[in-house]
């Protein structure tokens, strides 16, 4: 009863989400009609005789609204039609992976659905299915199974079979149809928001009023996801139950935990190993997935992978994620329905793989770009990676040696005038140690080390400042041994690379020699004797011919900026707004210039040609008709009366005598 009520509630939510999506389409259609009506009214106003000036304000507003309107329309078109195939995927044929195809078809038969028409490999640690069906996914269409190549290399056969059964379980429950509607609806809303944001970035006028549309669209997206999230999470639990019936609950639980751990490990491999090596040396592996598989299979990663699995179980579900929390899924799998009596136990599956050419092709897609780099065999790339991770401390050591030599007045010599500075040698480091400059050298080196390398072997640099200097000297000695071919670097995925010394020498012997020479005065001569016994010339510089020894750092911009697709979208928005602005301005100006002037009533004036024959007189006809010409007389006005003359009365002016007030002269 409870299950039926939950199913009914899920159906109601799905129908309400479809209705909400239909309302969104109706709102976009109303916006387009309103914009078109506004544009037509503006053009009609420009052509009326009463228009005195072109409607420049209306033209600017229409041009500013054009990117938003076209972006909303494009969002609707993207969600209404079937999704285009992914460009970052490689299609697998039956000949290229026969065991994989056979397993997928058998699992499809077990779950009671038709198999997918295409299997494509992707460069992500995930798997998914799509059904590019018409009518918003309501009708059956072409099915595609996307399988991440890191899963194919990192999961066991039983776990991989469980993942495939889970994805095919979505087909058997017809989840892909509603999932297509939910995904397309969410994608359309996100695309609409992106269109408004791009228009705001490209047009200052749009930025003034883009806040309210973004807020309303964000609320609409939140409501849509709130409606579809429980339905999609319920579908994930149903697919888990179907996969447990076919492949076993234990295999499904292990697959869920391993997939989460592989996803975290794959992201760490890209960020901490592949990308830094590509930036520093310009070298990339021809098959990065085989290099990742080598990392996952390394013994030192067993405990970290177990920790990743434990953290994945404890991590809560993301608010916008369609998958429930991993703990919830594992709890549901721990109480599966009882197995039918007489049912066969779950078979032990065979390993599944694809031909190496698919991994190479997918690696080219993953590592494409303007600065692709030099492709090398993945085993050689691992060797170069180990050497690079071990010898990257030599660049700060060379800078520290140079700084101390300049400070102490020991000189930074050059090979020739205008040439490159003298390269780093063991002799130069030992010379500073013999001169009592170990502490200035150690402080200079610690100041130039990256933050993650200032605490080697768990020791605090502040408590033991000589530890980084001893480690750098050991790396310098190891680099000389590797250069002469008597040692090599072994990759260590959880720390610095390990030096494998010549036969007869323990792995920690080189580090012990370097540590003794750095900490105890007078021990540099004994270190020189050990190096001479190994055939190492302490005055010989390192042959910086390989990529790991290149001291010139590649310029890498870390300033945040728009990506290539974002820049193309912004450029398209600017071009669209400019095109609409210029087109409307030109059309409005033409309509305004060619408008009819208004006519006002007045006295008719007979033209000179009017006295000739009507309808064909040209003024040169020798026999004109005697049409009287209009005469104009000077208008007469009534005489104004003569204004009266006014005179002021005459007044007598009194005389003034000033003699009494003039002082008299004294005799």
UniProtKB/TrEMBL annotation:
GO MF term set: metal ion binding; metalloendopeptidase activity
Cofactor: Zn(2+)
Residue intervals of the Peptidase M48 domain: 99-334
InterPro entries from the UniProt entry: HtpX_protease, Peptidase_M48
Topology of the protein relative to the lipid bilayer: Multi-pass membrane protein
An example Gene Ontology biological process: proteolysis
Keyword Zinc carried by entry: yes
Signal peptide: none
Entry's transmembrane regions: 12-38, 58-77, 208-227, 575-593
GO cellular component: plasma membrane
Region (Disordered) location: 604-634
Annotated CDD domains: M48_Ste24p_like
Record keywords: Cell membrane, Hydrolase, Membrane, Metal-binding, Metalloprotease, Protease, Transmembrane, Transmembrane helix, Zinc
Pfam family of the protein (one): Peptidase_M48
Subcellular location(s) per record: Cell membrane
Keyword Transit peptide: no
Main location: membrane
Species: Streptomyces rapamycinicus (strain ATCC 29253 / DSM 41530 / NRRL 5491 / AYB-994) (Streptomyces hygroscopicus (strain ATCC 29253))
Name the UniProt record assigns to this protein: Peptidase M48 domain-containing protein
PANTHER family linked to this entry: PROTEASE HTPX
């Amino acid at each position: 009863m409870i299950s039926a009520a939950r199913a009914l509630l899920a159906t109601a939510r799905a129908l309400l989400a479809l209705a909400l999506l239909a309302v969104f389409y109706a709102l976009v259609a109303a916006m387009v009609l309103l914009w078109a009506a506004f544009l037509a009214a503006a053009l009609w106003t420009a052509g009326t005789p009463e228009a005195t000036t072109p409607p420049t304000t209306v033209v600017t507003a229409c041009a500013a609204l054009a990117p938003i309107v076209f972006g909303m329309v494009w969002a609707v078109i993207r969600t209404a039609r079937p999704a285009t195939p992914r460009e970052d995927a490689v299609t697998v044929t039956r000949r290229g992976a026969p065991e994989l195809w056979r397993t997928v078809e058998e699992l499809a038969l077990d779950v009671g659905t038709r198999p997918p028409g295409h299997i494509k490999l992707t460069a992500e640690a995930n798997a998914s299915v799509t059904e590019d069906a018409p009518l918003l996914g309501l009708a059956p269409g072409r099915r595609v199974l996307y399988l991440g190549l890191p899963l194919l290399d990192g999961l066991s056969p039983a776990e991989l079979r469980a993942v495939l059964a889970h994805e095919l379980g979505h087909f058997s429950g017809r989840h892909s149809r509603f999932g297509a509607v939910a995904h397309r609806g969410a994608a359309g809303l996100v695309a609409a928001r992106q269109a408004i944001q791009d228009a705001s970035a490209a047009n200052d006028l749009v930025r003034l009023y883009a806040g309210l549309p973004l807020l309303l669209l964000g609320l609409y997206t939140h409501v849509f996801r709130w409606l579809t999230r429980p339905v999609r999470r319920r579908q994930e639990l149903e697919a888990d139950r179907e996969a447990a019936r076919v492949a076993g609950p234990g295999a499904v639980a292990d697959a869920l935990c391993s997939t989460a751990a592989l996803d975290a490990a794959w992201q760490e491999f890209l960020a901490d190993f592949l990308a830094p090596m590509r930036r520093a040396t310009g070298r990339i592996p021809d098959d990065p997935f085989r290099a990742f598989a080598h990392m996952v299979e390394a013994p030192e990663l067993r405990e970290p992978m177990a920790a990743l699995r434990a953290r994945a179980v404890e991590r809560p579900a993301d608010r916008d994620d369609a998958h429930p929390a991993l703990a919830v899924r594992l709890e549901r799998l721990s109480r599966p329905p009882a197995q039918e009596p007489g049912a066969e136990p779950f078979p032990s599956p065979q390993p599944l793989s694809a031909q190496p050419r698919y991994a190479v092709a997918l690696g080219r897609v993953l590592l494409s770009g303007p600065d692709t780099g030099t492709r090398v065999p993945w085993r050689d790339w691992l060797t170069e990676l180990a050497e690079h991770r071990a010898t990257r401390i030599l660049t700060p050591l060379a800078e520290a040696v140079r700084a101390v030599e300049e400070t102490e007045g020991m000189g930074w010599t050059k090979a020739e005038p205008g040439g490159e500075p003298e390269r780093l040698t063991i002799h130069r480091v030992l010379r500073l140690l013999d001169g009592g400059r170990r502490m200035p050298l150690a402080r200079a080196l610690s100041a130039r080390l990256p933050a993650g390398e200032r605490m080697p072997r768990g020791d605090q640099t502040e408590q033991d400042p000589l530890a980084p200097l001893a480690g750098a000297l050991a790396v310098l000695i190891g680099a000389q041994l590797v250069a002469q071919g008597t040692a090599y670097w072994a990759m260590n995925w959880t720390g610095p690379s390990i030096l494998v010394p010549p036969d007869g020498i323990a792995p920690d012997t080189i580090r012990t020699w370097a540590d003794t020479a750095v900490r105890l005065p007078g021990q540099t001569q004994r270190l020189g004797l050990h190096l001479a016994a190994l055939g190492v010339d302490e005055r010989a510089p390192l042959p910086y011919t390989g990529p790991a020894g290149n001291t010139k750092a590649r310029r890498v911009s870390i300033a945040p900026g728009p990506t290539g697709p974002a820049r193309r979208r912004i450029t398209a928005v600017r071009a669209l707004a400019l095109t609409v602005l210029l087109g409307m301005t030109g059309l409005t100006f033409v309509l305004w210039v060619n408008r009819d002037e208004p006519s006002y009533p007045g006295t008719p004036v007979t033209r000179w040609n009017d006295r000739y024959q009507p309808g064909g007189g040209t003024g040169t006809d020798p026999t004109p008709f005697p049409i009287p010409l209009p005469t104009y007389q000077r208008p007469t006005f009534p005489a104004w009366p003569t204004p009266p003359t006014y005179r002021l009365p005459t007044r007598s002016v009194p005389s003034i005598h000033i003699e009494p007030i003039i002082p008299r002269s004294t005799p």
